[in-house]
Amino acid sequence: MTDVILSETWWWPFVMILVAGWLATDVWRWLGVFAGGRLSEDGELLIWVRCVATALVAGVISKLILFPQGVLAETPVWLRLAATGVGFAAFFAARQRVVVGVLSAEAFLLCGWLALDKLG
Amino acid sequence: MTVPERPEWPETQTGTTVPGRIWMLRGARAAISIPAFILTAAFVGYAGLARETGLTLAETLAMTGFVWALPSIVVLTGALSSGMGLLPAGIAVALASVRLMPMTMALMPLIKVPGKTRNWQLLVASHFVAVTAWVYAMKHLPDLPREGRLLFFVGFGGSVSSFVFCMTAIAYLLVERLPDIVAGALFLLTPVYFLCSLWGASRLNADRVAMIAGLALGPLFFIYFPGLDLLWTGLVGGTLAYVGTRLYRRGLT
């Protein structure tokens, strides 16, 4: 198969990156430019589009927490959920300061992780 | 509800025009921010993953610069390392990137000056649409005069991506292998940061309800409709949130 030979050349990964990466990603941004160009700033349609975009990003968030990639997947799911919950609560307690939320979640995760390591 | 770190824009009140160059520089200055550092940390974590996967420095950087959306980059890394063909890899990445379309759509009315902004300018700016810059833009651009928004966004997005690009290179070269616990902590940064800042950027009840719906539906659709799950999460969650809050606002009219 030509694929085998292709994938051994130095330039093949760059073709992959340009076509399967850059084109496959930016095409959505370009479509968004053309489809969004006609929306008015305070129209009902824009509110709906924003709801769809927000729900999508929120879906990314819960996937990253419940089904993470890499080493984070080795931590128990309750620890990740608890760390996120603590972070979000701290974010509110600190009058919506993102830094506080992020640092609290990280601190909780690291403490929990180290404690589990010691116990296990 | 307001964030104190927001800079003041005196011209907004007085109506004096500011040259475009200045708006771009202001965007670049605004990029020196917590979101940019969090995103950098996430890419440092990614550089470790790329190196472990066996990607070269040039490949890692080409992906960072050309794709510029971390979830899609992670998908493409998996595709490259498993020797997936061009078409299936392209489809997998495209599915992971669908979210960029409604995000870009929602941004356009904010940064466009009707009758003045050209399409190529918007196409260039759209490359910087990724969650970090988008959330920042949705929150802060409405406070700026309309003429300055596009260049401010380009200045912001351009600086964040250049900085992240350099830091990814440095991390790739210097960090042989991150300790597990550090790598894991870096992976948790992104979702927690997204969670807090997405809530902070929401302006209407509809946005907040959509966010809660998306959080709940995301895992469900991932289990039952893997592949197109994010698209369904957005469409179903967003529409439910829109219809629900519209009924609440206006009743059955």
Summary keywords:
heterodimer, A: 120 residues, mainly alpha, 5 helices, B: 253 residues, 2 domains, 13 helices, 0% strand, globular, disordered N terminus
Distance between the termini of chain A: 49 Å
Q: How much helix is in the residues of chain A?
A: over 70%
This entry's quaternary arrangement is heterodimer
Main beta-sheet annotation of chain A: none
Can you give the mean pLDDT of chain A? 87
Could you tell me the strand content of chain A as a percent range?
A: under 5%
How many H/I helical runs of chain A? 5
Cα-to-Cα separation, first versus last residue of chain B: 31 Å
Poorly predicted parts of chain A: none
Strand tally of chain B: 0
Structural class of chain A: mainly alpha
Number of domains of chain B: 2
Number of helices, where a helix is a run of at least 4 consecutive DSSP H or I residues of chain B? 13
Greatest interface: A-B, 78 and 106 residues
Major sheet attributes of chain B:
none
Q: Describe the global form of chain A.
A: flat
Share of helical residues of chain B: over 70%
Order of H and E elements of chain A: HHHHH
Class from secondary-structure proportions of chain B:
mainly alpha
What is the average of the pLDDT values of chain B?
A: 85
Give the SSE string of chain B.
HHHHHHHHHHHHH
